[in-house]
Structures are given as C-alpha cells and as structure tokens.
Design a protein that fits this description.
Distance between the termini: 115 Å
Shape: elongated
Strand order of the largest sheet: 1-8-3-6
Order of helices and strands: HEEEEEEEEH
Number of helices: 2
Number of strands: 8
Strand content: 25-35%
Structural class: alpha+beta
C-alpha cells in the first residue's frame, strides 16, 4: 500500500511544474502542453523583476484560437478545460518593452481527466490526491509570498536610500545657510574706515 502511495505522489508531482524565466526586452517566450479532451490546465504567473513589473500573456488552443489573453499584468491565473486533443500553447511577451528584461515565475497545474468507466479509486487514494493538491496550493502560495516579499524589500531599501540622501542634502543646505548667515551678520559689526 505504501508503494502505491509513493507512486501516486510521484505521479501527481509530474503534473505540476514551476518555472522561473527571464523574458528579454522585445521578445516573447512560448511553451506548450499536450492535452486530451476534458483535461484541465491552470497557469499562474507573477512578474518578479524588471521594468514596470508587467507582461503580456495569452493561451491558444491547437487550432490557434485565443482562449485567454492578459495585457500588461503583473500577476495572473488562467484555467481551462481542453475541448479537444492537441497542443495548447501559452506565451509571455515582453515586446512592449525596449530596454527592461522581465523575470517571470509561473506554475502549470494539470488534472488528467479519468472517465467514469475507469477503475474506482480507493478512499485512501482519493485522500492522497486531495492532500497532494492541497500541498501544491500551499507551495504556490509560498512562492508568491517570496516574490512579493522580495519586491517589497526592494521598495523599502530604495525608500530608505532616498530618505538617507534627502537627509544629507538637507544637512548640507542647513550648514550652508548657517555659514552664510554668520558671514552676513559679521559684516554688520565690522567698522568701515575711510582713510
């Protein structure tokens, strides 16, 4: 029974893949998944670094029809159920940017459709599948939190740096004004003699 559980978990882990790619400026990166009718696929993505943290995303069916399209989004999620067998393609495009490369983290989840006539799944196997799906959801959420924390840390460090330099500028201006005032007031108390 434990061998069956291990095999089932290893099988479920092959259905999920997490990727981190860099989409260079003025380019696009495309990937594909071969699906059968009634298979389900979910793609979630988040831009972690680069430019305005936005990217174009689209998903097409085997005939080239666009199933989902998201323009200039920093995060997104798309779920489909395959209507026909074939190769489904999804692309991340950075063609709107001419200088900034974008780093994109994305996950692809797939659920293989098993017809009703298939063997009945034991309750333990059903629970294992449910736990595996829950673990994958937790893993995705952790990856999202890591990317979000990195982005917020960068923002905080940038703000801290700006505040530091603004304080230095204020100190320089303050000492300059003090020096000028001392010089100016000193000139009032000097006695000017004409010979």
């Amino acid at each position: 029974m434990t061998l069956l559980c291990i095999l089932l978990l290893s099988f479920l882990s092959t259905l999920v893949s997490a990727h981190k790619i860099t989409v260079e400026a003025s380019t696009k990166e495309c990937f594909f998944e071969d699906l059968h009718q009634h298979d389900q696929m979910t793609i979630t993505y988040q831009v972690g670094e680069g430019g305005h943290l936005d990217i174009d995303f689209w998903l097409t069916d085997p005939e080239g029809d666009v199933l989902a399209k998201q323009i200039r989004q920093s995060t997104g999620s798309t779920s489909i159920t395959a209507e026909k067998d074939g190769r489904y393609e999804y692309c991340f495009s950075n063609q709107m940017s001419t200088m900034a490369d974008k780093q994109v983290s994305f996950n692809v989840h797939g659920i293989i459709y098993i017809p009703e006539e298939a063997d009945i799944v034991a309750p333990v196997e059903r629970e294992i599948r449910s736990l595996a799906i829950g673990l994958l959801a937790v893993k995705d959420e952790q990856e999202y939190i890591v990317v979000r924390e990195r982005r917020h840390r960068d923002t905080a460090e940038s703000t801290n740096d700006r505040v530091k330099w603004w304080s230095v500028l204020q100190a320089v201006v303050l000492f300059s004004v003090v020096a000028w005032q001392v010089y100016y007031l000193k000139s009032f108390f000097e006695v000017k003699r004409i010979i």
